[in-house]
Design brief:
Number of domains: 1
Shape: globular
Strand content: 25-35%
Structural class: alpha+beta
Helix content: 25-40%
Number of helices: 3
Order of helices and strands: HEEHEEHE
Number of strands: 5
Distance between the termini: 84 Å
Strand order of the largest sheet: 2-1-5
Largest sheet: 3 strands, antiparallel
């Protein structure tokens, strides 16, 4: 005889799975906005994504990526060494990167 109660997850476990599972999408930025948040590009695994709206350039996104996601190079006694990136440091301290969001808008052009 097959006991189905053994194969069913506890009631709380099913609710937890629904809360943890999330459908990630690629971020989209408004015009003049530079945006960074956790997302998923097509055919990729979820990761930190940058997006820029009309009026911003790919260079702006590259600057944001460089400052927050790239390892920092330091020189000690004439030898280069690499320190963890800002995001790696946050993760090492126990922060959940999927909750990190960064957004900045361009200033309006002066009417002159």
């Amino acid at each position: 005889m097959n006991d189905r109660s053994e194969t069913k997850p506890p009631a709380d476990e099913g609710r937890l799975d629904r809360r943890v599972r999330r459908r990630w999408r690629a971020p989209t930025a408004a015009p003049g906005e530079l945006l960074m948040r956790w997302g998923k590009l097509p055919h990729e695994d979820p990761d930190m994504c940058m997006a820029w709206g009309e009026g911003c350039t790919k260079r702006d996104g590259a600057l944001l990526h460089y400052l927050l996601c790239s390892k920092r190079m330091t020189w000690k006694d004439g030898n280069p060494s690499f320190e963890p990136s800002f995001l790696e440091e946050l993760e090492a301290r126990g922060y959940d990167l999927t909750t990190l969001r960064f957004s900045v808008r361009k200033k309006e052009a002066p009417n002159g």
